[in-house]
Amino acid sequence: MNWELLIDLHKSNDRQGPGSEEQTKMAITLSGLSCASEILQVADIGCGTGASTLVLAENLNANITAVDLFPEFLSVLTANAEKQGLADKIRTLACSMDDLPFEEGSLDAIWAEGAVYNMGFKKSVTYFKRFLKPGGILAASEITWLTQSRPDEIRSYWDNEYPEIATAADKIRVLEEQGFILKGYFPLPVSCWIDNYYDPLRSGFDAFLAKHDTEEAKEVIDAETNEITLYEKYRNYYSYGFYIARKS
Ligand code: SAH
Q: What's residue 217's pLDDT?
């Protein structure tokens, strides 16, 4: 995986995965976090350039730690937070999601949109739980099958890309096995993929290839194009599911 190419392709977009301000707000509503009387301690894990972080900062009375592996994404977030007058609510932290520096039982909420696949859903849920206070919220969006059966082409693509893809019932079972109580689930609508993620991404392909005239860069674009083509063909079969759960 050539991270530098991927960072360069993705960092000028508002988001690095499917989602929207509206869906983040819906998850905030389902979480009940807005009712808190004290300043909340929140971590946004795998935040990228901070599409969700900024919505959280705008809508919650919170100190937010925005975590991503890549400082290049975090610099964009810092600049945007300053522009929007939200910088005093957000601190950034470049580190890996499987090696977090938080104290056990110290967080009111862990947010993670389109990012837990990097570590795997079950492993993330198990690992993140320790950092939450009792009653703390885990809100994560995760690739999810929407139907009980699916065509071979898309099944084998995802089995290869991310074998932990499963139905919402399976994901909810993982949460319940780890002692979480589900507060809400909804799948992201098509607009979150096409309008907010794939369209801006593909509008940058030509400039990216003009800048990086290499075989490796072409392979990156071919892989993204293949992912988009498959989504357009099979979008009724999968989406990101947003899971909002409370640590019991
Ligand atoms: N939440 C953002 C980004 C989703 S893309 C959004 O919805 O737009 C996944 C993000 O995970 C990327 O920003 C990537 O840099 C980050 N990432 C990948 N591996 C990681 C790791 N091991 N630890 C922390 N972040 C990681």
A: 97
